[in-house]
Known about the structure:
This protein is of the alpha/beta class and 148 residues long.
Amino acid sequence: MSGADAPPGVPRILAMVSQSGGLGDVLIASLFLRALRRWRPDARIDLFCGPQGAPAARLLGLRSPLVGRPWPGPLDLLADAWRLRREGRFDEVYSLSEVRSTIWLARAARARRTAGYDWEGRGRGLDLRLPWRPEANLALRHLELLRE
């Protein structure tokens, strides 16, 4: 079942760890995903991650993670952007990475609201931009995206 199968009126939220996001990226995002589920219990939450992160996403109770390509080149990035557009419109997208391709994909998902990190100007185009702080505890830092 894809996010497009969500019943009418059910908010759709996409969390993106990174296009090549693996097991560690998904596990770090797990605190954010649990908080998001408590904050928006009525929403359909999808996770975009890499192939190695998909098993961890399923362990977290996400039925059908949207899996990106492991080491994307420009054509892979375009294919993933096209796939996100086909999934339908998301109400909210959270980019949990400072990686430029992930931020670009968040915008390609055509969400009503986007939130993520701004590192060296890469977050332009996101509705909510928090400064990227590599020294911060990333699991806790993700929670700040929900407070804004």
